[in-house]
Amino acid sequence: MADIAGKDSYVSLAGTDVSTYCDSATFERLRTLVETPAFADAGMTRVGALLDTRLQLGGTYDDATGATTLTGILNTAITATSTALIFGPSGSTSGDERFTVTMLLESYSVTSDAAGKGSWTATFQRNDATTTTERDTF
Fold first, then answer.
1. Cα–Cα distances in Å, from 57 out to 11, 62, 94?
2. Which residues contact 85 (CB under 8 A, 6 or more apart)?
3. Which end of the chain is more exposed for a tag (fewer CB within 10 A), N or C?
4. What's residue 131's pLDDT?
């Protein structure tokens, strides 16, 4: 296993490389746990159920407008029924790992700090009931 530099991460939203707008990314694989205790049990029991994925992105805010800017892409994604997302934690060079997921934009926020930079964050949730998160390589 090789160490990676986060600075090489790759993020594509709706077919557009938005890596230059990002300075943080957290990709989570989740699974719903269903509680299955019975009256006589001394402890909680669970079974694994549905899979889920969450991606949280953030970066320096850019107020450029237009359909292919980050603001344009996020404004379109907030009302879309789905957004194609590709995340490459170590980059987008041939052989690098990537996750390809259909997601919904759950939230998007812009923060302004008088003593610092303007920033943005966005949280995406998986929106694909038929397949698991696709993990392969570029």
1. 9, 14, 23
2. 11, 12, 13, 55, 100, 101, 102, 103, 124
3. N
4. 64
